[in-house]
Design goal:
Strand content: 5-15%
Structural class: alpha/beta
Order of helices and strands: EHEEHHHHEHEHHEHEEHEHEHEHEEHHH
Distance between the termini: 16 Å
Length: 427
Amino acid sequence: MRVLMFGWEFPPHITGGLGTACYGITKGLTKHHTEVIFVVPKAFGDEDQQVVSIRNASDISFDLKDEEYKEFWERIKYLEVGSNIIPYVAPEYFAKTIKKNRKTGEEFTSNVFSRRYEFSGKYGINLLEEVARYALIASALAAKEQFDVIHAHDWLTYPAGIAAKKTSGKKLVVHMHATEFDRTGGNVNQQVYDIERQGMEEADQVITVSNLTRNIVIEKYGINPDKVVTIHNAVDHHQGHNIHYPKPFSEKLVTFLGRITFQKGPDYFIEAAYKVLQKSDDVRFAMAGSGDMLEKMIKRVAQLRIADKFHFTGFLDETRVQHIFSMSDVFVMPSVSEPFGIVPLEAMRSHVPVIISKQSGVAEVLHHALKVDFWDIDAIADSIYGLCHYEGLSKMFRTYGKQEVENLKWEDTALKIKNVYESLINR
């Protein structure tokens, strides 16, 4: 079986869990004799192509005079021009950025139709322009490549998936890794919502990463429940998680790792840290990641006068993630709305006990994790204190958590996805 797969990022160039999940899924599919052609907006040349054939959309040129490309454009013209979308930022930051970087429809159109187009592959102000060009390229690829089914990851690639389906007539699977409701807390960007909804309506099957997300897809987007299936994510067990680094201080270390945005609940982590430090002086806290709330979080730590016990590391690559996990005594994920959440699995794989919000998809598959409401700062603080000061409790979660997470494998997730492909092809 051959799959034409569309994704916006692929390791080692990732910003979060989406790229990690795409890599895990493609690796898992190869173990089930499934070949993947993975299309990214911009390839950097250092992607792992042992398990996937990478196509770089930036390398694909076309001539607008060719009638077939005009036909392709007709298929994706529903994308509104002259608009700007930046995911994963707070509404006030979005508005400020757009005011500084207003684009015109004329600029949009000329760039999209240029013979060559260099994608940034990032999440900047030209994002919708890149999404449109990416969909145009998808039509061209679908007409030339041989494949059995199409798989599009997240809303950024749904237009590409739709265009490829209309060109080839092949079945389309869209993967919902996060909804606009998760990213914005209900302050929905209508354009993103519309793209998500149309992608799922046009799809022959929708895969959600949790039942939490499945319910949102059905209730908020009106998608037919019969074509929405939950397939949980997993974790890579072959990374260097047994490497140990000496901790340069004697205190316990409690870690937050993720985008520092509304969705991930970094403010709840800081408020809980303050409560813990009122009771105990032998704990330190680290916030690893970047995002639009970073400056606000730094200011809050200063206001609470806990900066001497708090570390901001910035974005960490894979090696540094393993470094900080090897030093961590507790990992906390206080997400406001987390479709799944791979990072707790990575922490547990490294023998780190975890505290996760009940408002997360990963809570559906984990038993040996402390689960709290994201807004319950007292419960988060109590859980941190307990894991830091009661060795028996910590040891139990470290031991059984590691055993539990070892049973969550990408090859099992991939087999379920392959079964979806086969059911569509055989219809």
